[in-house]
Structure formats: structure tokens, C-alpha cells
Amino acid sequence: MGMPLDERLGGDVKRVEHELMGVKQAVLRPVGLTVAQYAALLVLAEQPGISAAELARRCRVTPQTMTTILRNLESAGLIERAPHELHRNVLETRLTEAGRDTFEQADKRASAVERRLSEEFTAKERDTLRALLARCSAVLTDPSITT
């Protein structure tokens, strides 16, 4: 038989991630955004003109999911998409003025959640937590884990 349930780290990681996303969803709801929409606006605020494919990679969603997210953000008037100057088959995505305003409101709310979480730890503990999570990631992205 496998490991006892209370020794499985995956459940702990999933629980905390689920709790974080739930709190972010709650604080973003009054602004009218989902966590996924906020994540897309966050990347677009940093990298205007990014392609939908790269945006999907950065937000860790499928291209199909990003297409839906972008369609909804465009319908809400928060982004605009236009053909790239040189590559006509590539659409560049940028925030509109309304999108920038909505993003700034949302970012204040989401950043407050992140700040509250961060303040729970000392700087040394945050560094340790990040190092431990990086080790988890290294194990889970090592191709030998699936062989």
C-alpha cells in the first residue's frame, strides 16, 4: 500500500493553493474579475503586446482557456487586440484605459492578500519556504519522475 494520507505533501500543497485562490477570488469579485482574468491582466500590464500563446504559458493555462479569458476581457472592454505590425497573423493584446483602471484596483486587492501571507513569515522563513518549493518543483519537473 502507498503512503499514509497524512504524510502526502501533495495534499498540503493543493489545500494551501486552493485556499489562496479562494481568498483571491473573493477579493477580486467586487472588481468583476476572476483569478484567471486578473493573472492575464497582470502579465499584460508588465508586457503589453504579448501573444496569446505566450500569455497562456505565463498564466499556466491552455491556449484554449486563454482564448476564452481574452474573449471575456475584450467583451468587457478591458483589453484590445490588434494585428502585429510585422506578423499579421499574430494578434497583440494590450490593456485599454478601463483595463488599466480595473487592473490597478484588482492588484491592490490581490497584493494585500499576498502581503498578508508574506507577513506571516520572517524574511528568513520566506527564503526557506521559497527554497523548499523550488526543490519540490525541481523533483516534479525532472523527467525521470515519470519513468
How would you explain this protein's 3D organization?
With 147 residues, the chain is mainly alpha-helical. The protein has one domain: Orthogonal Bundle (Arc Repressor Mutant, subunit A), CATH 1.10.10.10. It is built from six helices and two strands; from the N terminus they run ααααββαα. The protein has helices at 9-28, 35-46, 52-59, 63-75, 97-119, 123-141, and strands at 79-83, 91-95. It has a two-stranded antiparallel sheet. Helix 1 packs across helix 5 (97-119), helix 2 packs across helix 3 (52-59) and helix 2 crosses helix 5. The longest helix has 23 residues, at 97-119. The model has no long low-confidence stretch (mean pLDDT 93).
What topology, given as strand order, has the largest sheet? 1-2
Low-confidence stretches: none
CATH architecture level-2 label: Orthogonal Bundle
**Would you tell me the structural class of the helices and strands?**
mainly alpha
Into which percent range does the helicity of residues fall? 55-70%
User: What is the distance, rounded to the nearest whole angstrom, between the alpha carbons of the first and last residues?
Assistant: 20 Å
Shape, per Cα inertia axes? globular
Average pLDDT metric: 93
SS strand fraction: 5-15%
Strand/helix succession: HHHHEEHH
Q: Number of helical segments?
A: 6
Radius of gyration: 18 Å
Tell how many strands the DSSP assignment holds. Answer: 2
Return the CATH class.
Mainly Alpha
The CATH superfamily appears as Winged helix-like DNA-binding domain superfamily/Winged helix DNA-binding domain
